[in-house]
Design a protein that fits this description.
The chain has a domain at 103-168. 33% of the residues lie in helices and 24% in strands. It has nine helices and ten strands. Helix 5 (129-137) packs across helix 6 and helix 8 (211-217) crosses helix 9. The longest helix is centred in the last third of the chain and has 18 residues, at 183-200. The chain is globular. The structure holds adenosine-5'-triphosphate and magnesium ion.
Length: 265
């Protein structure tokens, strides 16, 4: 784990703050070449403030769509989604989304990229130190002036995490943020994510394809069905952190989850 993950909370990034999410009977369809594609079917999910929840499910079942709905980037076809009891109608900086395939801007330095949210809200002048704080949180302070082509894959992921953290989100939506990283970088960032979550106190919803990652990071693992997605099963895992991949309880639960997903155990 890096020094950044162990350091006390940075000035400018306050915490802990968290958010409750209630997904009520949400269904969602897309129009695709003239026909309707049902992607989510009557899904109910309540997440308590400060929870770390993982979402697993087959490719194409609707995980990213669910995150986009909670982020407010799409409106559900039916049903409602509440953040702290209020309907979500549009994106809000209190709900940070780290995209499945983050694209940094080739023309912008890491600092500028992380600053875009503050800049869009006209807050950059007064709150520019938040950018430095967010970069420090992910261990990228020495690369503030670097451009995307000068970063490794892991550093680009850290930059997109900092871009969400700069707004001090009460909810962090993470769409396979570590999916394309090598296993060593992945292990480091998994530990750092837990550190950030423990220190900042936000609610976290993580989409992952990796059952072990879900169990190393979260206390609730939700398994979604094939499209249209509904909740197929839920597993609770209340072990203290740091967790170990060879913990017998984790190994047993991993087998049950793989079986639920219809995968070899
Ligand atoms: N804007 C869109 N318009 C039409 N169809 C869409 C749109 N976005 C997603 N879809 C469709 O919705 C379904 C679910 O997509 P989604 O990206 O949510 O899946 P996913 O579970 O995140 O998959 P993966 O694990 O591969 O990332 C897919 O069939 C996809 O083609
Ligand atoms: Mg996806």
């Amino acid at each position: 784990m890096s020094i950044a993950a162990l350091a006390p909370a940075e000035p400018g990034i306050s915490g802990p703050i968290s958010m409750a999410i209630d997904v009520h009977a949400v269904s969602h369809r897309f129009s695709l070449t003239g026909s309707q594609l049902p992607v989510i079917e009557t899904l109910d999910l309540s997440i308590a403030p400060g929870d770390f929840v993982a979402l697993l499910g087959p490719s194409g079942c609707g995980k990213s769509t669910l995150l986009r709905l909670i982020a407010g980037l799409e409106r559900p076809t039916s049903g409602s989604i509440l953040a702290d009891g209020r309907p979500i109608t549009r994106p809000d900086p209190s709900r940070g989304l780290v995209f499945q395939d983050p694209t940094l801007f080739p023309w912008a330095s890491v600092w500028k990229y992380v600053a875009t949210g503050l800049e869009a809200r006209g807050r950059l002048r007064e709150e520019h130190e938040r950018v430095d704080s967010a970069l420090a949180l992910v261990g990228l302070e020495a690369f503030a002036d670097a451009y995307p082509h000068q970063l490794s894959g892991g550093m680009a992921q850290r930059a997109s995490l900092a871009r969400a953290l700069v707004n001090d989100p009460a909810l962090l939506l993470l769409d396979e943020p570590l999916g394309k990283l090598d296993s060593l970088t992945r292990l480091t960032l998994q530990a750092e994510l837990v550190g950030l979550w423990q220190r900042n106190g936000f609610t976290a919803l993580l989409v992952t394809h990796d059952v072990e990652e879900a169990l190393l990071l979260s206390s609730r693992v939700i398994v979604l069905s094939d499209r249209p997605a509904h909740i197929k099963a839920e597993f609770r895992f209340d072990k203290p952190y740091p967790r170990h991949r060879d913990d017998p309880d984790l190994v047993t639960l991993r087998r049950s989850i793989l079986a639920t997903l219809g995968l070899p155990t």
